[in-house]
Design brief:
Chain lengths: ~350, ~325
C-alpha cells in the first residue's frame, strides 16, 4: 500500500521510461527480422526468424537464462504472496465473513456465507462513509492547491542561486524532513502548535490565551497540508532541479541576445522546460487522489475526532481492524481500490492526449 | 598544439577561485539586483529556518535540566546548560533502550534482506528478451496500479501465523517495486561491452553481478539502501497491527505512547515525579533518538539522490 502523499507521486516518476519496455523485445525482434524478409514470407520462415532473434528454442533459452530466473524468483514470490493473494482475499467483501469459523483466517473465507452486494448497499447508506469521501476530496484539493506549487517555486529559487556552497547546504537542510517518520513529524508539530507548544507557551507567558491547533477539527485540513509541506516540499525539489539542469544554457544566451530580460527568460525558457515534469506529477497525483496520507491522519484521528479526520483509508481501518467488521471494511477498501485504478488509467489517458508520456506508453 | 596551450603558465589572477566560489557570471546575464539577491536569501533562509527551528527546540529541551525547563515554562529555546541525564536514564536499560535495539535490529535485517532480493531481481530482469522477463515485469508492475487493500492483507498475515513475530514487520513490505525498477534502470544503463566481455571470458551471471554490476552501481545502491532503511526505521503501523506484546514494540510505537499520549516510560514515573528528571526532557530525548540516525545518514548519500530518484526517468 502506498500511503504517501505527494512524494510517492514524485517518486513514481522514475519508472516512467522503464514501464514500457516489456513491449520492446517483440518490437526489436520484428525490426531485426524485417530487412531480411521478402514480401511473401512463409509462416514457418517467420517462426524460425523469430526464434533466431530470441536466441533459439525455449529449452536452450531456459538453460541460458536459468540464473536470471532464479535471481528474479524471490521478489516475484514475495509479491505474489503479499500483493496478489490478498487481491483474491477481497472476496470477503461479498460475504458476511466470520473469522471464528476456522482457526485460520484465510480458510474461514471458504466457510463464510455469501451475501452478494449487501455490504456495498450498506456502505452507500452509511453517512460516515460519505463524510469520509468528502474529507478525502477536501484534503486532496487542498494538498494539490497549497502543496503542489511550493517545490516548483523552491526549485526555481535554488536553481537561480549560483554559489555551490549555498545550494548544497540549503538542499541538505530542505531534504532532511523527508526522512523523518510521520510519528516524528507530528510530534514536532505538537511542540510548535500544540497546547503545550512553543507558540501557546510564549503567548501564555505574555498574558494572552494559549491555543491548541492540533486538536481543532476546523483547521485540521490545513494542519495536515502544512505537515505534508514541512515533510516533503523540500524533497519535491529534486525532480524539478534535474529538469532545470537539463536546460541548455545556449537557450538562455540566445534569448538574452534577443533582448529577453530575466522574467521573460523564465517565462519562455525555464517554465516550458518544466512543463512535462509538472504534467507528469499532476497526472500521478490525480491518479493517487484517494490516498491522502493514511499514517499521518491515523496518528491524529484520536486527537481531532473522526468528524474531520476520517478519510477513506481510516474508515477501512476503523471498521475492519477496530470494529472487526471485516467484510464491511473490505468492501469499502475494494471501492477505493477500483475507483483508484480508474483514476490512474484516466489520468494517464489525459496525459497521452496532452502529448505527454504519463506512467506508461500507449 | 593543445598540449602547448595547456602548459602555458596561468596568468596570476587576483585570487584563485576556491572550490566553493561562485562560477563567473556569463557576459550576457544582467548584473543581479541587490534587492533581488536579498529577497532570494531571505526566502531561502526562512525555508531553512522553518525546518531547523523545531528540531533545535527538541534537541535543546532534551539536553536541559529540570530546573531550566521549569524556568522556561516548558520548551527551551536558548540553552542555559547541558545535561545528558535524560539520555542516561533512557539508555540504561528499560523500555526505550529495548525499543531502540528492536528498531535497529529490524532496520538492519530488513534492509539487508530487501536489498538482496531487490538487487537480484533488478539484475534478473535487466536483460531484455530473457525467458519470462516480460511476465515477471508485468507481475511486478501491476502492483503499482492496484493495491489489495488493508483488510485482505491483514487477514493473510494473520493466517500465515506471522502475528507477534518480527517477520510481520519485514516480509509484507520487503519488496518495493519502485526500488527494483530504479535499480534495474541503472543496471541496464551499464555499457553492455563490459558485461559481454566478462561473459566471453567465462564469467557467469553471479560473478558479473558481484564483480562488475554492483561495483559500478554503488551510488544508486547507496540511495536505495537509504530508502529501505528509512522505511524500516520509520514504520509503526504494521507493528501496531500485528504485534500485541508491548515489550516487542519498535521505537516509533514507543514514541507514540510517550510523546503523543504523554505517558512516562515504564519504570521511570517515580524518577520524574521526585528526581532530577524532567518528563519533557525525556520525551524530547526519545524524539532525538528517533531522528538521529536518519539525520546523520542522509547528508552522506545526498549527492547521489538525483541519480537514485531519476535514473531512466527525466531525460538529460
Amino acid at each position: 500500500m502506498a500511503h504517501s502523499t505527494a512524494p510517492g507521486a514524485a517518486a513514481r516518476t522514475a519508472p516512467s521510461s522503464t514501464t514500457d519496455d516489456p513491449a520492446e523485445p517483440s518490437a526489436g525482434g520484428s525490426r531485426a527480422a524485417k530487412p531480411t524478409k521478402p514480401s511473401g514470407v512463409s509462416k514457418a520462415e517467420k517462426k524460425a526468424l523469430k526464434k533466431a532473434a530470441n536466441g533459439g528454442t525455449l529449452r536452450t533459452r531456459l538453460k541460458r537464462d536459468r540464473t536470471l530466473i532464479l535471481m528474479t524468483l524471490p521478489a516475484v514470490l514475495l509479491v505474489l504472496v503479499f500483493n496478489y493473494i490478498p487481491i483474491l482475499g477481497n472476496v470477503v467483501a461479498f460475504q458476511e465473513y466470520d473469522p471464528y469459523v476456522s482457526d485460520n483466517g484465510f480458510v474461514a473465507i471458504f466457510h463464510s456465507p455469501w451475501v452478494g452486494f449487501e455490504q456495498f448497499s450498506r456502505i452507500f447508506e452509511d453517512s460516515a462513509f460519505w463524510d469520509a469521501v468528502q474529507n478525502t476530496f477536501v484534503l486532496f484539493s487542498l494538498q494539490l492547491l497549497l502543496f503542489f506549487p511550493i517545490p516548483i517555486v523552491l526549485a526555481l529559487l535554488i536553481n537561480s542561486v549560483i554559489r555551490p556552497r549555498v545550494r548544497a547546504v540549503s538542499q541538505a537542510i530542505l531534504y532532511l524532513p523527508h526522512f523523518f517518520s510521520w510519528v516524528l513529524v507530528i510530534t514536532v508539530f505538537q511542540q510548535i502548535f500544540g497546547g503545550a507548544g512553543i507558540i501557546a507557551q510564549t503567548l501564555r507567558q505574555h498574558g494572552y490565551e494559549g491555543f491548541d491547533l492540533m486538536t481543532d477539527p476546523g483547521i485540521f485540513k490545513f494542519l495536515v497540508t502544512a505537515e505534508g509541506v514541512w515533510k516533503d516540499a523540500g524533497w519535491g525539489i529534486i525532480v524539478f532541479l534535474a529538469a532545470l539542469a537539463s536546460v541548455s544554457p545556449d537557450l538562455y544566451e540566445a534569448s538574452a541576445m534577443d533582448g529577453a530580460g530575466r522574467w521573460r527568460r523564465m517565462w519562455h525558457v525555464t517554465l516550458p522546460a518544466l512543463r512535462p515534469v509538472i504534467a507528469l506529477l499532476l497526472v500521478l497525483r490525480v491518479g493517487d487522489a484517494l490516498t491522502v496520507g493514511f499514517e499521518q491522519i491515523l496518528l491524529q484521528r484520536d486527537a481531532v475526532g473522526p468528524g474531520a479526520a476520517e478519510v477513506l483509508d481510516t474508515f477501512v481501518w476503523w471498521n475492519g481492524v477496530r470494529n472487526q467488521e471485516f467484510s464491511y471494511a473490505a468492501a469499502a477498501g475494494l471501492i477505493k481500490g477500483v475507483v483508484s485504478l480508474g483514476l490512474v488509467l484516466a489520468a494517464n489517458k489525459v496525459a497521452h492526449l496532452m502529448g505527454e508520456q504519463g506512467v506508461y506508453k500507449k | 598544439m593543445s598540449a602547448v596551450t595547456e602548459e602555458r603558465p596561468k596568468a596570476p589572477g587576483p585570487k584563485a577561485p576556491g572550490r566553493w566560489a561562485a562560477p563567473p557570471r556569463p557576459v550576457w546575464e544582467e548584473e543581479p539586483h541587490k534587492a533581488g539577491l536579498a529577497g532570494k536569501g531571505i526566502v531561502l533562509a526562512i525555508a531553512c529556518f522553518a525546518v531547523l527551528f523545531p528540531l533545535w527546540i527538541v534537541v535543546v529541551t532534551s539536553l536541559s535540566s529540570k530546573q531550566d525547563i521549569s524556568e522556561a515554562g516548558g520548551l527551551v529555546v536558548i540553552p542555559k546548560g547541558i545535561t545528558f541525564i535524560a539520555y542516561q536514564e533512557l539508555l540504561s536499560g528499560g523500555q526505550v533502550t529495548r525499543a531502540t535495539l528492536v528498531s535497529l535490529g529490524i532496520t538492519l535485517v530488513g534492509t539487508v534482506f530487501s536489498m538482496t532480493v531487490s538487487i537480484l531481481a533488478a539484475y534478473g530482469l535487466s536483460r531484455i528478451g530473457s525467458v519470462a522477463h516480460r511476465w515477471f515485469l508485468m507481475i511486478l508492475l501491476a502492483t503499482m496500479f492496484f493495491g489489495a487493500g488493508l483488510i485482505p492483507t491483514y487477514l493473510l498475515v494473520q493466517s500465515l501465523g506471522l502475528t507477534d513475530s518480527y517477520l510481520a514487520l519485514i516480509l509484507p513490505s520487503a519488496v518495493s517495486v519502485f526500488n527494483i525498477l530504479v535499480l534495474r534502470a541503472f543496471f541496464m544503463s551499464i555499457s553492455p561491452e563490459l558485461t559481454d566481455s566478462a561473459r566471453i571470458d567465462g564469467a557467469g551471471d553471479w560473478r558479473i553481478l558481484w564483480q562488475i554490476v554492483i561495483p559500478l552501481s554503488r551510488a544508486v545502491i547507496a540511495v536505495i539502501t537509504l530508502f529501505y532503511a528509512v522505511g524500516y526505521w520509520s514504520a509503526w503501523f504494521n507493528a501496531s497491527l500485528y504485534l500485541s506484546d508491548q515489550d516487542m514494540m519498535p521505537l516509533q510505537n514507543v514514541m507514540i505512547q510517550l510523546v503523543q499520549k504523554q505517558e512516562p516510560p515504564v519504570g521511570m514515573g517515580q524518577a520524574i515525579k521526585t528526581g532530577q528528571l524532567s518528563a519533557l526532557a525525556v520525551q524530547m530525548a526519545v524524539m532525538v533518538l528517533a531522528l538521529l540516525p536518519v539525520a546523520f545518514l542522509s547528508p552522506f548519500v545526498q549527492k547521489h539522490f538525483k541519480k537514485g530518484m531519476l535514473t531512466g526517468a527525466v531525460k538529460g
